[in-house]
Design a protein that fits this description.
Length: 214
Amino acid sequence: MTSTAPARRTRCKQCTGPLSLMARADALYCGATCRKRASRARVAAERARVEGEQAARVPAELRSRARWVRYSAKKVPLRIDGRFASVQNPSSWSDFAAASKATAGDGIGFVLAASDEIVVVDLDHAVEGGQVLPWAQRIVDALPPTYMERGRSGSGLHLWFRGSVPSGRRWRRDEIAVEVYSDRRYMIVGDRVPGTPLGLAELPNAAARIASLV
């Protein structure tokens, strides 16, 4: 049995113009310009795909706010150009689209600002072997269903609510480790727990509510 060689391309994959008769048999583009344009198009398509996936995992009420930063491997907040960002300096933050497109650091994070009245309940070391530990599950079940993410380590959970606390709070007792923030902190965003709402529930008197559960 003889194999049939693939048909030779006669037109540029990018501009559809004719390929030179002297072009290599496996040539796809008519020249360097079209090759570069095709490469840029692939990069743009990949970024659009990533942005679309992130948008599907992040609530609109977070995406609509210019509170976004990048973060480094050591969890340091970064501007979209890679310089250090500050949770107290709004000029170092960006909108969601710009932060998602940027390549600095390892991913995106959201800066909590008191004026937004968004509160995050951080359950540390709440997941083990892919299962939520009983103490953490009890807290999750006692709170309104809301947007929830895994922490970057894979062992923590972040529950996002509409609400506020006067200042950050932290509780440590036995295996329980809970923190609550609504100002001057940034949270890594993007790893939504499947099945959780793509929106933020109300949590009035957040600090007192959490204190009653721990």
